[in-house]
Design goal:
285 residues; mainly beta; seven-stranded antiparallel sheet; six-stranded antiparallel sheet; 2 helices; 17 strands; disordered N terminus
């Protein structure tokens, strides 16, 4: 047996990609248009200011990406989240002059609550620090390298959460990826929000148990949860609420198994959570 959980009409989400209106400040102080997702190399290549074989080391300098955008201020019961998919590699992000993120991994995704920081007109700035400075600093720290590699020119790269592509002379010598290489999105959310949802399915003899755990946040105080039920097929159990967390466990007698197609039928049990809200409405996840 297996289960899945859908979203609720009481969690209204609007996703606004911040893909347009970006500019890159070059080493000479000149600003050129840039695309996000993108890198310094891709922005320069579109302007015919760089091409493969030029030998430019983008890790050795600081680069600044800037985006100006308009957005209505948050309404009552609404939150605004800035989702950053990934920035290569050492970066500081600020919104309207205030730092909101310091990142040292190009693979890490971030979600930042900027509800109180968003104004009618906004400026988002991403400063990508020189990775070579970070590697130079790491070189002066113990422990010393106990191995040698010919894959990369600088063995200190083992301390950086970044790709070797563009930094491996033998097979990928350039360009070094620097910049917001994954999407950046403005998310506006209202209603009751479920987060960190986990579902676990267990077999108990001939029966099965479906467990639900999640965190919830009330964005609109009129939609505070009062009670709820968690369903697995036609079976249900009450939902317990405690300090922003919900838990429930449904027992399914004589549960039908999920089998690979070579062994049987892959049976699914649809699951849902019905939560009664303070305003008399029902949120269905």
């Amino acid at each position: 047996m297996t289960a899945s959980l859908a979203a609720s009409k009481h969690e209204v989400v609007r996703r606004i990609p911040l893909a347009e209106g970006w500019e890159l400040e070059t080493a000479g102080g000149r600003a050129i248009p840039a695309r996000v997702p993108g890198t310094v190399a891709s922005a320069l290549r579109e302007r015919n200011a760089w091409r493969f074989g030029d030998g430019v080391r983008f890790d050795s300098a600081e680069h600044t990406f800037r985006c100006r955008f308009e957005a209505p201020r948050a309404e009552d019961g609404e939150e605004i989240i800035l989702e950053i998919g990934g920035i290569a590699t050492i970066a500081v992000v600020s919104l309207n002059g205030e730092p909101i993120l310091s990142s040292t991994s190009m693979f890490a995704s971030r979600s930042i609550d900027i509800t109180s920081a968003v104004g009618e007109r906004n400026e988002l700035v991403i400063v990508c620090r020189a990775l070579s400075d970070f590697l130079r600093e790491r070189k002066s720290r113990p422990p010393a390298a106990r191995w040698r590699t010919r894959v990369v020119a600088d063995p200190q790269l083992r301390w950086a959460r970044t790709t070797l592509i563009g930094r491996a002379p033998g097979f990928a010598p350039e360009p070094e990826p620097v910049g917001p290489w994954r999407p950046i999105t403005l998310v506006r959310r209202t209603g009751l929000s479920l987060e960190n949802v986990t579902r676990r399915v267990e077999l108990d003899g001939s029966g099965g148990v479906v467990r639900l755990e999640a965190r919830f946040r009330v964005l609109d105080q009129r939609q505070r949860p009062v009670s709820g039920r968690f369903f697995a097929g036609d079976h249900f159990a009450p939902i317990e609420f405690a300090e922003g967390k919900i838990e429930a466990a449904v027992r399914v007698p004589d549960a039908r198994r999920w089998w690979p197609h070579t062994h049987g039928h892959p049976h699914l049990y649809p699951v849902r959570a019905e939560i009664e809200l303070e305003d008399g409405s029902t949120a269905v996840f």
